[in-house]
Every structure is written in structure tokens, then in C-alpha cells.
Design brief:
The complex is a heterodimer of chains A (113) and B (114).
Chain A lengths: L4 E3 L2 E4 L5 E6 L6 E8 L3 E9 L2 E4 L8 E7 L2 E6 L8 E8 L6 E3 L3 E5 L1
Parallel strand pairs in A: 2-11
Antiparallel strand pairs in A: 1-3, 3-8, 4-5, 4-9, 5-6, 7-8, 9-10, 9-11
Chain B lengths: L3 E4 L2 E5 L4 E7 L6 E6 L5 E7 L5 E4 L2 E6 L4 E6 L8 E8 L9 E3 L3 E6 L1
């Protein structure tokens, strides 16, 4: 089991550019979560999916953020246009209903300059 | 709104000593999680506590859950330098009837000195 796989590990982009973060959940996990971690705000839940369907995106900070899960093995988080205040570490996590455990990916460290 | 409060937020201790990190939360949830995060790394699951009175131990760490008091503790016994990290507690939102996922505390930054 390779765990939750995120790419890229690091992303540096200029303000105004589009950024796409990718996540592959653990096979068989039916829930996927996107989190953001900053020093000021800690770990925040942005959006989550159950069985590929977005359930709650109330944590998405602005309309510049969007997320999709086209199938059970892939999800994207897109920021367009990016701003310096979006700089953070973005984590993807997946969960199995059977054991309630949440497994986190390695994260993507995003820097917007 | 679900609130999760950890204390202390910063802790410097000597090797060989014992200490406890506290996690208070505002919901009636009976699912409580502890994670460890090393600098620049991801969140590593330590314990999942699923019922009142649950106690789990792994090495020098022991976690417990009191759902009536809405309190979980992470106890460190005879600390060693390798346990230096940031420790997070988190509560499952689902019990609140709201959005799914975890709400995290701010984390306890633990430094263990020789």
C-alpha cells in the first residue's frame, strides 16, 4: 500500500498563475479530504468527497479555489488565480468507513510569489 | 462550531521526565485522534480513540479519552529526544451532525532536551 500520494511536493508560482494540486487516495477508501496548513490558522478542512461526490466545500476560502474528484483514484485542487496569501502546505487525506482512520499524504508546499 | 483546544502549546522538557498534553473539545463526539508531525513532514497517525474510557499505548506514549469530560490526554513516559515533534489532537466532526472530516487543535510543540 503506497499510501495517499500527492503531487507535486513543492510548487513555486507567480501571483496570478493557475495552480493544480493532485491527490491519489488509498485504494478502497471512500472519503477524501483536502486540508490547508499555515502557521497562523493551523490545519483547516477545505472540502471533502464521499464516493467521489463533493459533500461540503464550506471551508474553501474563495471562489478562486475549486476541487474535483472525477473518479475514485484521483482528485485535484485548483487555485486560479493564485495569490501570495495562498502560500501554505496542502494535505490530502483519505478515510475508510470501516476503521475510521484518516491517512494523510505527504503534502504539497505551495509558495506564491 | 466545534472547538478543539490543546495545552500546552509549547513544551520543553528533559529526557527521562514524564508529562501530559491535554486536549479539550466542545462536541459530544466519541472519536478522537492523535497525530505527530515532524518539521516539514506529514501527519503520522498515533492513536484513534473510539469510545469513552478508551486507552491506547505505544512505547512511551499513552492516550486516553473521557467523553463525559470531553477530554483526551497524551501522556509521555520517560521522554527521549526522538519524541521531539508537534503533536495534534483532532475530533471527528461527524458526531456533531455537521460536515465530515477532522477539526484539529493548534498543536503542542514538544522539545525534549538531553
Amino acid at each position: 500500500d503506497a499510501g495517499v500520494i500527492q503531487s507535486p511536493r513543492h510548487e513555486v508560482t507567480e501571483m496570478g498563475q493557475e495552480v493544480t494540486l493532485r491527490c491519489k487516495p488509498i485504494s478502497g477508501h471512500n472519503s477524501l479530504f483536502w486540508y490547508r496548513q499555515t502557521m497562523m490558522r493551523g490545519l483547516e478542512l477545505l472540502i471533502y468527497f464521499n464516493n467521489n461526490v463533493p459533500i461540503d466545500d464550506s471551508g474553501m476560502p474563495e471562489d478562486r479555489f475549486s476541487a474535483k474528484m472525477p473518479n475514485a483514484s484521483f482528485s485535484t485542487l485548483k487555485i486560479q488565480p493564485s495569490e501570495p496569501r495562498d502560500s501554505a502546505v496542502y494535505f490530502c487525506a483519505s478515510r475508510s468507513r470501516e476503521n475510521y482512520g484518516y491517512t494523510f499524504g505527504s503534502g504539497t508546499r505551495l509558495t506564491v510569489v | 462550531e466545534l472547538k478543539v483546544e490543546q495545552n500546552p502549546l509549547f513544551l520543553s522538557m528533559q529526557e527521562g521526565k514524564n508529562y501530559t498534553i491535554y486536549c479539550n473539545y466542545s462536541t459530544t463526539s466519541d472519536r478522537l485522534y492523535w497525530y505527530r508531525q515532524d518539521p516539514g513532514k506529514s501527519l503520522e497517525s498515533l492513536f484513534v480513540l473510539l469510545s469513552n474510557g478508551a486507552v491506547k499505548q505505544e512505547g512511551r506514549l499513552m492516550a486516553s479519552l473521557d467523553t463525559k469530560a470531553r477530554l483526551s490526554t497524551l501522556h509521555i513516559t520517560a521522554a527521549v529526544h526522538d519524541l521531539s515533534a508537534t503533536y495534534f489532537c483532532a475530533v471527528d466532526n461527524e458526531e456533531e451532525g455537521g460536515a465530515d472530516g477532522l477539526t484539529f487543535g493548534k498543536g503542542t510543540h514538544l522539545i525534549i532536551q538531553p
